[in-house]
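User: I need a structural model of DUF4232 domain-containing protein from Kocuria atrinae for a docking pre-check later this week. Nothing fancy, just the predicted structure tokens so I can convert them on my end. Input:
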Amino acid sequence: MQRISKLTGTAAIVGLGLSLSAVAPAQAAPAVGPCKDVSIEVESEPGSPGMGHYSQWILVTNKGSDACNLNGHPGVQRSVLTSSGFEQYGAPAAWTNEGVVPVQLKPGETGRAILRVTQPHLYDAADCGGVVDTDALTIYLPGGTSQYNVAAHGDACSSESLVTSTVGVFK
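Assistant: Understood. Predicted structure tokens for DUF4232 domain-containing protein:
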């Protein structure tokens, strides 16, 4: 006959010479939150030019010590640095119809989203409202309200009703 006895977290099976130790369940890893202002760097980088359009990469690098999530499309609009700050011009970039891909940035990793812009001179002048020489992009991260202004030269239509660019999801 075999006897099983419990002794402070250890079960001993008498007669078989076996013992089992109870293991506490693993604690869940802390939830990874969105990339925050103090832990990221936002930049732009020229993409490929094309006939009648150009592209720019929007780069977000995790400069913190913990992982963070960067899921979705950024908000993007052309802007000009004036004596009173950055002034935005034209319509914000439309979001592509790509599905959101979960992006988790470990410390030092970079997420990228592509901005594609149609050259303003290709639009009817009345629709465009005039071409503005811009020197920056104003960027809002997915789910965020903080504004990032990064150097990025390009022309923009001044009309707020004419969408001339699209932006993809972060990858």
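Before docking, keep this in mind: Helices lie at 125-128.
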